[in-house]
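Our example pasted here:


***
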Amino acid sequence: LSSQDAKFVEERRKQLQTYLRSVMNKVIQAVPEFTASPQKETLTQLMPFFVVACLLSSEVTLRH
């Protein structure tokens, strides 16, 4: 990666981290079940998107 590409990737990572934190803050405020049991299993039951994302990520990792 060039330094410009690395800067871009780092900026996108920071933006994603900020976004995910805001999503999690909303979940904590809106879903008492998650606050009562803040575990990966609870999160994936409440938001199946994370299961699909994890599976896709694992698939990509296995290919490389």
DSSP finds four helices and no strands in the chain. The mean pLDDT is 80.
